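Lay summary. Proteins are chains of building blocks that fold into shapes, and those shapes determine what they do. In this project we predict the shape from the chain. Here is one chain we studied, written as its sequence of building blocks.
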Amino acid sequence: MEHSYDLVVVGAGTAGIPCAAEAALGGARVLLVEKDHQIGGTLHISGGHMAAAGTRRQAERGIADSVEAHLADIRRISAGTARDDLVRITAENAAETVDWLDDRGFRFASETPRIIYGHEPYTTARTYYGVDEAISILEVFERLLDEAVATGRLDLWKNSPVIGLTPGEDGGVGGVGGVTVLRGGVEDVAVRAGHVVLATGGFAADPELFLELEGAPLVSAAHPTSTGDGIHLARELGAAVAGTGSFLPTFGGLPHPTSPGRANWSDRQLLIAAERPPVEIYVDRHGRRWVAEDELSIDEKERALTRIDDMTFWTVFDDAMVESTRSGRPLVVGWTPEDLRDRADRRAGVHSAGTLEELAAKAGIDPAGLVATAARYNEAVAAGEDPDFGRTHLPLPLARPPFYAIRNHAISLVTFAGLDIDSDFRVRRTDGSSARNLYAIGEVIGAAATCGQSFCSGMLVTPAITFGRLLGRRLAARDG
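And here is the predicted shape, written in a compact code that computers can read:
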């Protein structure tokens, strides 16, 4: 049986679902294919942050904002390293995206919009998320898909990875003619399509591709389906990759207790100085400090992290420091001081000892280096001045045993490199030309496209939804 559609969307996630649904609701015949047993992709693990200027919700709260102010903040935070054309498309349509979600019953967290300090902050409160983070977005998308399926113009195949793009009649020079799907994971099915949209997500669960494109070792906290499928597929037809050299890790995550190469995001350390002024010190494997722990710019910390061995560091602290967090924010999200003490030497990467030398030996830190660093840090605390890194928050010396060390890695939730696209979302080849009917949206285009070498609040989820809706409507207008 031959399958033929106006549009095939590969990946039922943040970008793919709104693209497929909008196209079907606009009159196109659409196939949405997903390799997982469930839809949603990274929405299952994402905070779901979105950013938009000029929304109804801002107006209701008396927040004055504008597209130009949003653009200025993005350019400042990214230092002009993001794609200005794609950023502008996002900013100019973002309010409509957020209001559209509002109209469809999105359950906003009551404190939004707000300024987020997990990375470089905006100057205006324009970040939104749901009461259940990104799951609140997925709730809207599930209702949207049901509506689109009910039209009879949208088919959804789950457990069905796309294993190949079919070149067009001109051999792929102009575009694609369809896809080959491993339907149900067992049967190769050829599907003809007038247009193909790759919305397959990033590749932070593929160590080999990560090392090739990001040039860094991978410690992943990404969704396991983030294996770079769209990049692998499109490169076979000569697609170009953009954004290499822009990699920036997320700042620190505990090693997963059972899975090497993965980090456990759920019990991460709280390392944002604006949220918890640090009592601890950070050291590398040589026992040396390498950054001002109270540096407010998390981006600066993340860039410094890329310059140390294996992008691995330890937070080192003593029992007085543990106790000092009892009435404030914890050292590890969700852990009380008793939890931390109890999990030392039981939880992977968490160690304690009666002396700094013993602690270093357990943790894999150079003992002489750690002892020397602790002594110098204690001198800085006594003097009230840090001559090495300029740290100003110096509340306690590192002196009261037992001592603790928690190993942290630069971790990857998202990827910065991705398929190169033009401003119409068409995939570009290595010669700079655009494919006629092959498109890419979402994380498959790389975070660098809309964030540059930075983490810019809401500039991953917002472009994914916005580009998906814009492209779905545009393709429906052609084929519906």
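What the prediction tells us: The two ends are 23 Å apart (CA to CA).
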